[in-house]
Amino acid sequence: MSKYKVVLTGTTWPEAYEKLLEQCEVKVWEGPGPLPRDQLLDWLADAEGLFNVGHVKVDEELLDAAPNLRVIAQSSVGYDNIDVEACTRKGVPFGNTPGVLVEATADLTFGLLLSAARRIHEGWELVKAGQWRTVYGTDLYGKTLGVVGLGDIGSAVARRAKACGMNIIYHNRTRRPNDEQEGATYVSFDELLTTSDCIVCLVPLSNHSRGMFSKEQFNKMKPTAYFVNASRGPVVDTQALYDALQQNKIAYAALDVTDPEPIPADHPLLSLSNILITPHIGSATYETRNSMANLAAENLLAGLSGKPLPTCVNQSVNYK
Ligand code: 8YV
């Protein structure tokens, strides 16, 4: 039986790659840098599957350049880079990787909050500089955590916060049915902004959420507030965040995602002392990334053989 023609926009984990090689003839971009768009479109001319390792933009242009494409798999839970409606219209199922990255991303998100609150990273920098002195932070115990986007990852963060004695409130576009059992109280966005001691943003990037944290929102927060973003950079107006931190409208920010991303070393945010930034490592553990790649490979191979994807975003799609 001839092998499926598949394009990988970057290298993936060995276990997943071996799975793909069993059934696929692959073209894989090994760098340097991101796969050039014209090269990708050329490779897609006869491709049946696309394994999207980075967040390559999948739009009408790409789909039109890939007439034989039968499935797209991406190793991420977020898919703001994918025109899902166009994929559905073109009969191309798209699979992401929810579920497998929840605990790792929640660990990193809560770790950012804890490091910011207790200045863990500042303490380490002082020790390295030969300055053995106290760095004061703030208690999380007894404080109110406001989760914006209480989904699977948000719930896992709330679980961690509850274990640290925090009170949990949240705001979603729609209330979660079992929120009280999770010990999370649904409030309006405004009430969350004005009453939270710590705010964690975990909403997917969409036309609704883009720029949802801007000057107006930061001005409503407590001047002692800690703000954490582990969703997507463009959910936050970067200039408004810089101004809020620089003017002490809020106490501290901890980000795993930025806009722009990657954030350049000379960006004004990096000149501030009340911020901590990590390079989009929410799901970056060996175990979790391997699981994500394996799930993405399962999605790809299912789509190539005309079977339902284990985690399909556009389940209404009529396969080609
Ligand atoms: C990245 C993420 O995708 O899953 C997501 O939506 O943002 C992260 O897990 C991961 O870093 C792979 O690029």
TrEMBL record:
InterPro entries per UniProt: D-isomer_2-hydroxyacid_DH, D-isomer_2_OHA_DH_cat_dom, D-isomer_DH_CS, D-isomer_DH_NAD-bd, NAD(P)-bd_dom_sf
Molecular function terms, GO-annotated: oxidoreductase activity
Keyword annotations: NAD, Oxidoreductase
One Pfam match: 2-Hacid_dh_C
E.C. no: 1.1.1.-
Family according to the record: Belongs to the D-isomer specific 2-hydroxyacid dehydrogenase family.
Protein name: 2-hydroxyacid dehydrogenase
Species the sequence originates in: Ectobacillus funiculus
